[in-house]
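A.,

Following up on our hallway conversation. Structure tokens first:
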């Protein structure tokens, strides 16, 4: 089982190659803008450096979102293009679920994990998981204020992490059950590939013709101002 994975849901562009769930190689590039050409180069490089050819890959895995609209569009388009060209199946993993899997081994079973991605202004994309990776509350977009997540915080410790957690920390940081690790947790193809290995074993493949990124909300644009002569 050789799985090539990619994550472009944030400003971190990452690719990874796993064999039977074991990481063979990965690249992470911190950039403000990901291009399809850059991503294709990284994908080719990680496969070649591990001693394989693209044709030997058994499946392509992609972070499906939530995250950056443009980043997700590039990542999913690239993944689908590879699947069509190589005649390989597509696996799609929730970005927040992959983030939760990065930290679940570091906290007791009584803790709840809340990965967060910045959605601009005082809004975040978030979800809740236990330390076994089970989803407790599905992914949603939330406006952060002083009353946010009261229900969870009254039940026990909640770990907030990801680039959206800073907004939450400013308002909830004094709550005794609100935990904000200093470690910077970012989405990574390493954990996308890890979860994709499980998805592959149960044939959780996507329909290439109809699959779309999990944008969570509509892409918002602003009208350009007219020039004043």
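Then the amino acids I'd put at each of the 229 positions:
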């Amino acid at each position: 089982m050789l799985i090539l994975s990619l994550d472009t849901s944030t400003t971190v562009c990452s690719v990874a190659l796993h064999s039977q769930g074991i990481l063979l190689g990965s690249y992470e590039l911190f950039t403000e803008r990901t291009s399809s050409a850059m991503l294709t180069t990284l994908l080719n490089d990680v496969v070649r450096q591990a001693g394989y050819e693209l044709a030997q890959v058994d499946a392509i895995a992609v972070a499906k979102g939530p995250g950056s609209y443009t980043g997700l569009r590039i990542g999913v388009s690239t993944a689908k293009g590879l699947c069509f060209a190589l005649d390989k199946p597509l696996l799609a993993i929730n970005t927040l679920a992959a983030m939760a899997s990065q930290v679940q081994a570091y906290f007791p079973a009584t803790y709840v994990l809340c990965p967060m991605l910045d959605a601009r202004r005082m809004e975040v994309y978030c979800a809740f998981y236990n330390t076994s990776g089970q989803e407790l509350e599905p992914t949603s977009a939330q406006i952060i204020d002083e009353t946010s997540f009261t229900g969870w915080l009254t039940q026990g410790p909640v770990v907030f992490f990801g680039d959206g957690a800073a907004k939450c920390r400013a308002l909830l940081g004094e709550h005794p059950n609100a935990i904000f690790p200093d470690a910077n947790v970012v989405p990574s193809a390493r954990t996308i590939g890890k979860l994709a290995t499980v998805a592959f074993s149960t044939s959780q493949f996507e329909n290439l013709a109809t699959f779309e990124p999990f944008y969570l909300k509509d892409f918002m644009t602003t009208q350009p101002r007219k020039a004043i002569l």
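The first strand starts at residue 2 and ends at 7. Curious whether your intuition agrees with the design.

B.
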